[in-house]
Amino acid sequence: MTSAATKSQYYPGQSWFFQRRAKKSKLAAVRQRDGDDCWYCGNVMRFGGIPNTRKYATLEHLQPLSKGGTSAMENLALCHKSCNGHLKDFERAHKEKMQAGMRARI
Fold first, then answer.
1. Which residue positions in the chain have pLDDT lower than 50?
2. CATH number assigned to the domain comprising residue 68
3. Would residue 88 count as lying in a domain?
4. What is the CA radius of gyration of the chain?
5. Which bin fits 42, alpha (ψ -120 to 50), beta or left (φ > 0)?
6. Could you tell me which residue ranges the HNH nuclease domain spans (predicted)?
């Protein structure tokens, strides 16, 4: 009884499933709070389609986890995948200066 349907079924206890669900709900909550625009560049993000494209929505930790930040709602913002890559793991103050410079160019 090892058919293709049996192999692809969900098995309770797969932690990645719950982590993905939690991330999606957090992304939806931040989107409801902040809207559909990227925190960094201010352009509209893509919420559907292929996840690994440049304009796809990701969660940005304003104070990086590596520098003492948390995954609390007040530390999260929506960013394009490419914008998130530009922000790297800089401190929050530096990211805000980068944001101001980016918005001034637009």
1. 1, 5
2. 1.10.30
3. yes
4. 17
5. left
6. 25-85
